[in-house]
Design goal:
about 80 residues; alpha+beta; Translation Initiation Factor IF3; four-stranded mixed beta sheet; 2 helices
Length: about 80
C-alpha cells in the first residue's frame, strides 16, 4: 500500500505524533492515506485510539528498523 502524505515524528514522544497526524489529516481529502513515521512505542496505542475517536481508519503498522510506519486512512 502506498500513501499520499508522510509526517515524520521520529524522536517525538506522545502526544506529539497524534497532534501532528491530526493537523495533517485535517488538510487531506477523505480516503487519502497518511504515513506517520514514529519511534515512540506509545504511538502504537495512541494513534489507533485517536483514529477510532476521530473517525479515521487505522490501516496498519509496519516495522522499518527502529521506526514504525503507522498508516491512517482519512475518514
Amino acid at each position: 500500500m502506498d500513501w499520499d502524505r508522510v509526517v515524520d515524528c521520529e524522536g517525538l514522544l506522545c502526544p506529539l505524533p497524534v497532534l501532528r497526524a491530526r493537523k495533517v489529516l485535517l488538510a487531506m481529502a477523505a480516503g487519502q492515506v497518511l504515513c506517520v513515521r514514529a519511534t515512540d512505542r506509545m504511538a502504537a496505542v495512541d494513534l489507533p485510539h485517536f483514529c477510532g475517536e476521530a473517525g479515521h481508519e487505522y490501516v496498519e503498522a509496519r516495522q522499518e528498523g527502529a521506526v514504525v510506519l503507522h498508516l491512517i486512512r482519512r475518514g
